Amino acid sequence: MIETHLQSRVYLDNSASTKIAPEVLEVMLPYFTEQFGNASSIHSFGQQAKGAVDEARRQVASLIGADFNEIIFLSGGTEADNLAIRGIAESYRSKGNHIITSEFEHPAVRNTCLAFEKQGFRVTYLPIYENGLVRIEDIKSVITNDTILISIMHANNEVGTIQPIEEIGALVKEIRLERKNLFFHTDAVQSVGKIPIDVKSLGVDLLSLSSHKIHGPKGIGALYLRKGIRITSQLTGGRHERERRAGTENVPAIVGLGQSAELAKENLEKFQEIKSLRDYFEAGVAKLIPEIKFNGDKEHRLANISNISFSYIEGEALLIALDLKGIAVSTGSACSSGSTQPSPVLVAMGLSKEMVRGSIRFSFSRYTTKQEIDYVLSVLPEVVARLRNVSPLYKQAMAKEK
């Protein structure tokens, strides 16, 4: 039997999902038992549920600087991205059929854009550079009179790079002085609750967010939709969410999202303390393990993500070896798990195939402790050394040095 160090379980895959905060679970529980009404019913049970949904809508709006009625509740970030892109593309197709996005996007955006190409839309995939940033001049050079939507991720889920969203928003606002039918969407699933966000300052028209990235329940998210923009609903049914998303509201999950948004806002300044923990971790890795590469922009990235390429080894082998030591990490986006293809994000950044294959994402939360990081630093060098010792690539490299 393979020994596992369950007494030292460390969860460093918080970009995939976070544990639910106790305060969030506490406020959700009554809506499974005592306050179980349908929020669309007019009796007191229903109105009690509707009041809870309205309060959650206010809490989410407050976190991102939106107005109460600009928040649409959905099943998560993927549905939010789909509603944003599909809703705009289908609603404004008569005005143009060009979408601009980047090579850096989450599959929820990337695959939706690929689907629209099959429907006759023209999609431009902006290049990203070694630091993982898009360039404003590249956007300017590809905008045409047929462009109806720009969708650029706020912060990348694999390397944490934060894009110049405010600059892109200012560009869109300037162009909109001449023509009205250009919209700007950002997938902010990773950045909401991690850095200050004000949708008005950013200049975005649509913004996607998800509960389980900020210590809320899975299966619930939201889309910010700026007042006055029409979108085509993707579900036929009742008149829920002001006819923008049919289906009975998931009241317990919505309440949980609202509370997690409230807690995220309260802990926003404290969240930045994670940066010192991440820097401590990265300094330790750099000191203890040779031939590594830190991926992403050094300054413009989220405080809780560290993506590292380890030469001469397979990332999946390292992930499994760490899991046997009780340490949970990731080789990239959880939504791409099971894919045999190398990370499109790291490929787009220009990393070699070897470095892409050897990459691991460590992602922290406000519950991560220094003691946990010390345990990881005590285990990681030995695991990497062991995997390199059985790597043909490593043996070849060592032979050349001799």
Descriptive overview:
41% of the residues lie in helices and 13% in strands. It has helices spanning 22-28, 44-64, 77-91, 107-117, 136-142, 165-176, 199-202, 240-243, 251-266, 268-271, 274-288, 315-324, 344-348, 353-357, 370-389, 392-401, and strands at residues 10-11, 71-74, 98-102, 122-126, 147-151, 183-187, 206-210, 221-225, 292-295, 305-310, 327-328, 359-363. Strands 2-8-7-6-5-3-4 form a seven-stranded mixed sheet, sandwiched between helices. Strands 9-10-12 form a three-stranded antiparallel sheet. 46% of the residues are buried.
Concise synopsis of the structure shown:
This protein is α/β, with parallel strands linked by helices. It is 41% helix and 13% strand.
Q: Secondary-structure blueprint of this entry?
A:
Layout: E1 10-11, H1 22-28, H2 44-64, E2 71-74, H3 77-91, E3 98-102, H4 107-117, E4 122-126, H5 136-142, E5 147-151, H6 165-176, E6 183-187, H7 199-202, E7 206-210, E8 221-225, H8 240-243, H9 251-266, H10 268-271, H11 274-288, E9 292-295, E10 305-310, H12 315-324, E11 327-328, H13 344-348, H14 353-357, E12 359-363, H15 370-389, H16 392-401
Parallel strand pairs: 1-11, 3-4, 3-5, 5-6, 6-7
Antiparallel strand pairs: 2-8, 7-8, 9-10, 10-12
Helix pairs in contact: 1-9, 2-9, 3-4, 11-15, 12-15
